[in-house]
Design a protein that fits this description.
By secondary structure, this protein is an alpha+beta fold. Among the domains are: about 10-120, PAS domain (Beta-Lactamase), CATH 3.30.450.20; about 190-270. About 40% of the residues lie in helices and about 20% in strands. The protein has helices spanning about 15-25, 60-70, 115-140, 175-185, 195-210, 215-230, 240-245, 250-270; strands spanning about 30-35, 45, 80-85, 90-100, 105-115, 160-165, 170-175, 185-190. Strands 1, 2, 3, 4, 5, 6, 7 and 8 form an eight-stranded mixed beta sheet that branches. Helix 5 runs parallel beside helix 7 (about 240-245), helix 6 (about 215-230) crosses helix 8 and helix 7 (about 240-245) packs across helix 8 (about 250-270). This is YheO domain-containing protein. It comes from Bifidobacterium asteroides.
């Protein structure tokens, strides 16, 4: 599925690639083309969108916003095998390639998201069966006599963001998806812009244990600083969503944001002694 009427001219040649990869990689692999022209409706082509529930017109992911806001694309060309999550919280394995024009400017992102749940369950079932048969052959007992080991190839064990020789992040197998979230790269595939903003707010609430409407000025400034660092204000309507959650006016959010960005500029301009 694609929306050619809204796509940048330079990204149009990649639309057939989305369809091709979608058919090649199969029903459980979502392929997405994201444009940087409008982060509120960043998805301009998608194959197998049932994996995440997204469609053409869905917003950029939190990862894409962060990459753009912090100019991380200046230091790498892609991210592979990192922890992704659907808006329902289902884990998937994700990879993103940064698309550039002839002037080396990033014009979009090609994303591949693999739902490995079927393979994971099959792998666990086969391991259980194998351990059961091994226990019978070694002890003559119909019951397993040793603990089933955790499958180290389980894609939920994707973790740390390790750069390769070119500075591109490759997530290595280790302990758990939670470790991946703690150490670096992770992504949530939101289906609409308001959900994306609210997810960031709820993450802050969970960490600081204070409801938005009960936040004092210092806590509001901290929240808005975090949201700005994450790139959430690249999304149209995010100001109004944040204002509604905090129970304050949109002009107040703008005023906070102005103060935060002014302080950032001043700190950046200060000479290092």
């Amino acid at each position: 599925m694609n929306g050619t009427e809204n796509i940048s001219t330079s990204l149009r040649p990649f639309i057939p690639l989305v369809d091709f990869l979608g058919e090649l990689l199969g029903h459980d692999t979502e392929v997405v083309l994201q444009d940087v022209k409008d982060f509120s409706h960043s998805v301009v082509a998608i194959a197998n969108g049932h994996v995440s529930g997204r469609k053409v017109g869905s917003p950029a992911t939190d990862l894409v916003l962060r990459i753009w806001q912090n100019r991380e694309y200046e230091h790498r060309n892609y991210l592979v095998r990192y922890a992704g999550y659907t808006h329902e919280g289902r884990p998937i394995v994700s990879s993103t390639f940064f698309l550039r024009n002839t002037e080396d400017q990033v014009i979009g992102f090609l994303c591949i998201n693999f739902d490995n749940s079927i393979f994971k369950e099959t792998s666990k079932a086969l391991r259980t069966a194998s351990d059961y048969l091994d226990s019978i052959s070694s002890s003559g007992s119909p019951f397993p006599t040793h603990r089933i080991m955790r499958d180290q190839s389980d894609p939920d064990t994707q973790t740390v963001d390790t750069p390769d020789e070119h500075g591109n992040a490759i997530i290595q197998n280790d302990a758990s998806v939670q470790q991946a979230v703690t150490d670096g790269t992770h992504e949530t595939l939101s289906v609409n812009a308001e959900d994306l903003t609210n997810q960031h707010i709820q993450s802050f609430v969970a960490e600081h244990r204070v409801q938005p409407e009960r936040m004092n000025k210092s806590e509001r400034l901290k929240l808005i600083t975090d949201l700005d660092d994450s790139g959430i204000f690249l999304i149209k309507g995010a100001i109004d969503t944040v204002a509604g959650a905090l129970g304050i006016s949109a002009p107040t959010v703008y005023r906070y944001l102005h103060l935060i960005r002014k302080e950032k500029r001043e700190n950046k301009e200060q000479p290092v002694e």
